[in-house]
Amino acid sequence: MFNYFKQQLANVAGTQEPEYGPTAIQPVGQREGEPAYTELTKDHLKWMTINQTCVETQTFYFFTESGHIGFVQALYSNVVGLRITCQFNCKIFYPNQEKEPLWSSDPLSNHGFDQEQYSFFADNLSVELSEDGNSYTIKSVTNENSIVDLKFVRTAPGFMGGENGTSNYGTDPKNPWGSMRHAFWPRCDVEGRIITKEGEINCKGRGFFSFALQGMKPHHAASRWNFVNFHSPSYSAVIMEFTTPPSYGSTVVRVGGIVAHDKLLMAGTAGLEVKHTESGQDSDNDWPQPSAVACHWNGKTEDGKDVSASLVGSIGDRLDRVDVMAEVPGFVKTIVASAVGTKPYIYQFAPKMTLEVKIGDEVKKEEGSLFMEATFIS
Q1: pTM beyond cutoff 0.85
Q2: Tens-digit pLDDT profile for residues 286-298
Q3: Domain Svf1-like C-terminal, which positions (predicted)?
Q4: 244 exposed, middle or buried (CB, 10 Å; 0-12, 13-18, 19+)?
């Protein structure tokens, strides 16, 4: 009980947590009897809106036929159970970095949900899940430089790690004081457009949908992140990886999977790896910015065949470096206020790379587009 009160004080004040050790986190997919993954149903797509410090996001990534890469994101935040704020974000990277990335981030007013918590609404924004649970329509006029009209249609099974996609934090597993949850649609068809002041961007192409809940202060939940999101004509592959702060034993938690066309080849929380094989010190903040990576997936297909895949090589120059404390809305600054040693930066890359996939004795290679983020927090 004393541990619980210490943790609640850290939650409210933003102070550094005591070192509870690795037993104070129960990583997704590692509890006894838990499946490697669970295929998503419509019921798994409800907004949770928990009444404690949290950030809940629905993020829709697109890889257009014209070469644009980006995402739109609806974000719900609760600060210590006392203040709720919402935001809509849009980011677009232009082909061959011909222009600076477009970034818009706008606070939302009068947010709400449908009766069953499937769809999100606010003034000038709607994020609606279809009746059959297989597509989202996103419409936004919250910013005149990024008028959004998009549709994401799931083309392969969605999944989450373990039984419910959730890692829990706390010294009493039956009464966790924090959580982290991820659920994915790894492969989607995308149609629609984003209208900017400089013209209309046709967003026809492939997409990826991530539904995430961070049920505690971000610098308490993780010190580093890696996000790998790859798409080619035949394959989609994802890894979401975070490392906890020393207060939870610097534990590495991963979830990922591979899709071939409309089939989920493998998914789960084991047999995954993201390594920064080359990096250089960022002179502005001393973080080790990666320049080459090795990403690996290992598992089994539903019929028991061994499956593995790898992405190895240079990731080129970064597309952007995001100083989170300079860019994020005020409510996130409130969440990390008073945190010692917290200086979050996100490094974003989008190189062309080749995925090598091996199923049984058959090996295939295919070039595609990778969107990768390396995030350093504390």
Answers
A1: yes
A2: 899 999 999 999 9
A3: 216-378
A4: buried
